[in-house]
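tool_call: predict_structure(chain=1)
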Amino acid sequence: MEKSALQIARAAYQPKLPKALQGAVKIKEGAPTQSVDNQEEIKALFPNTYGMPLVEFEPAEVMDATKMNVGVILSGGQAPGGHNVISGLFDGIKKLNPENHLYGFLMGPGGLVDHKYIEITEDFLKDYRNTGGFDMIGSGRTKLEEVEQFEKGIEILRKLDIKALVIIGGDDSNTNACVLAEYYAAKKYGVQVIGCPKTIDGDLKNDQIETSFGFDTACKTYAELIGNIERDCNSARKYWHFVKLMGRSASHIALECALQTQPNICLISEEVEAQDQTLNEIVEHIADIVAYRAAQGNNFGVVLIPEGLIEFIPAIGRLIQELNDLLAAHGDDYKDLGKQAQREYILSHLSKENAATFATLPEGVARQLSLDRDPHGNVQVSLIETEKLISEMVAAKLDEWKKTGKYVGKFAPQHHFFGYEGRCAAPSNFDADYCYALGTSASYLIANGKTGYMAIVKNTTSTTDEWKAGGVPITMMMNMERRNGKMKPVIRKALVELDGKPFKALAAKREEWAKNTCYVYPGPIQYWGPSEVCDLPTKTLALEQS
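tool_result:
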């Protein structure tokens, strides 16, 4: 493998561990736990893994030389730091006993079911330490939900004498980890399952998980790009830049990037939903700011838009829900009709309110909502070019206002979508350390016989020495939600809290940012230099922990 100069230098970086994980380790158990909601239903579904205590690691005098082989899976979308979770897990089990082996299942959970794996050795691992991406073993989106999959999995786990499986993923993947842990515990198969919290979207967090790994790096990567655009914008002084950012289910990335770069406008999906805003109200709000800045002689600006915004606009959310049901039930009647006939079919079958919403949408967006579905039959929101839709509607509004003299200026939009640019970036020092500590924690959860737990690291705004490592029962984070028409146990997503400190910090400043040019240019992620530059957590984490 050809390496860049950065990768060679980065390979020498030794991630820092919390004090409790630096030597021999023992566990301290807390009080029994319960799920965040629907306690009776969750307890009935997970009788073997419900109510377990929180676990914290403490330094010990000596540690047993535990013999165990471990399997690891990367599940779902990529996030910076995944390779360091595997590095921490590898070093952790080798420290426990040099005879221990680590096996990586290839291309996600499907590798477990299809018995595709590789042994991870020190020689193999050295090329991947402190690197971004999931290319060490690949990832996939196979859901582990069926008994047949669990049974296929146990065949290969027994063949390789694997004592425990570590699933590195987001809320859905960790829900599946919990289901698998429960199944193996109920069957007394003797295989433990441990989860690790991953998602750049930042929506896997709660009282126990301060942040999901990858969020820090992805936001810093996007913030660098936004800062570059802001500087260009402030130099050319003739473009409005509409930037769509990843985050379908929550707006944490947009909020963090706004706090880092101070754009003129940052939309927050959760606020749009809470205020029952219409698409037209959002457009008018942006057009007002464009017109104000034009009157000051500033025909330029930057707008941040979360990827999932469309679904959070209540009227469109209701429309999408009815469209999903309609097309699930009558998709066969619909799919062979011509374009115009399809539009008429939908308008005639929707409720009056939703038909009115559908009729107001630009044709391209209406078509995307009614045609392109993902494998689960849902609208592919990420395909909707929300940034272009909004800028086109703003342009139309400004044209109206020009006729009455309400707007005098030039509106020249530019469009960007920052998604894949951040998912596989080289992990920041924070994510390199955090992920290594998560992997090390997973090894000690296994050594202490735990299953159905997620590895956690807390107190992360302090120095790494002061971080606290441990585990949380996955059932503690679960509730019942409707998925594809059925009630299912899932880990509750963390949305942006409108009464939380990060959002309040944005709300306090956004009027000033809208009217004035207050851009901040954070620059690239720093790996070397003073700690106050290189080891900063995200502003979101700093505000939440303050």
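agent: The chain is about 45% helix and 15% strand. Proceeding to next step.
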